[in-house]
Amino acid sequence: AHALLRDATTHLQEGLAADPHNRLARNECARAWLEYGLRTLRNGELDEADQAFAHVPEVLDPKFIEGDFSKEEQFLIARSKYAKGLAQRDAGRVEDAITTLIDSVQAMGELVLGSSPRNQEQALLLAEAYTELAELIGKHFSADDAMEAHSQAVPILLELNRLHPDWPEVKFLIARNYGAMSLLARDSGKSSDGVKKTQDAIELMNEILADDPDNDRYAFTLSKLRGEYAELMSDLGKPTTAVPIVQQAVESLEALLAKHKDTKLTPQRLSWEIQLAQMYGVLGHTSQSAKQADVAKVAFAKANSKWQELSAAVPEDEVVKQGLLWSKDRLAKIQ
Length: 335
Description:
Elements: H1 2-16, H2 23-42, H3 46-59, H4 71-90, H5 94-113, H6 120-140, H7 143-163, H8 168-187, H9 191-211, H10 216-235, H11 239-259, H12 267-289, H13 293-313, H14 318-334
């Protein structure tokens, strides 16, 4: 299906040469390149995805479009820019990704916030782009700038949730924002501020997973949030409460990864594997604080083993390098 879509899209583009001013054909071709790029992005083929997204503004070249761009055409170009930012992020080009994502949210924001009635699918995409931007800034740069991006996403999502209380993707994005905002609060020494946000996020994820129990993205996010909640509990001097919470998070994430053990190491798969390695570390640290040395020893050994496995697969990854050093040190100290 992948190769067929590539061939079909290439033929669409070749067909434009015969009728270069056919606007409908140009729109169809641009949408096809975007769809092909999104598929290759999910598959971890980042160069191929990047090239596909670059074709969208090329196909919608102003010299072949008579009159001004329609709102849909403008949004299609902004959408391809957002997707390009995600490809840059997955390729480790963080500064490029942030610049591209900022450009895309500005372009999408003008279209969405200026439309009446607002296109709600587009509003959701805008909120998603702000969420990705906020998470990226929060990981690599300033907490204040990350909070600013979250504060753009959350009001859009809360309004969408009010209008469509049964829309699971809206609740999923609210939960992601709350979880990330809670981490930022924790990093600034305000763990107690983060607790309520994380509890709300877990509640939202439980709600949408009840209706869609086989959704892997939702299951991963719930496991991640539970692990983060356990860390908050441990910060607040409640390691004994935290241990069973993080154990549950580890078990559910292990089960999720076991479901797809033959999958290639896409950027998403790598992030899930890294999350599991980090959670083994959280379990080790928390159980050690709770005076459960045997549980801690096993958890640190599993963390070290997982980081070694990841180091063999992606030896240059900075997160993996740091994780491996940390787990070796903790394991040596507890032996």
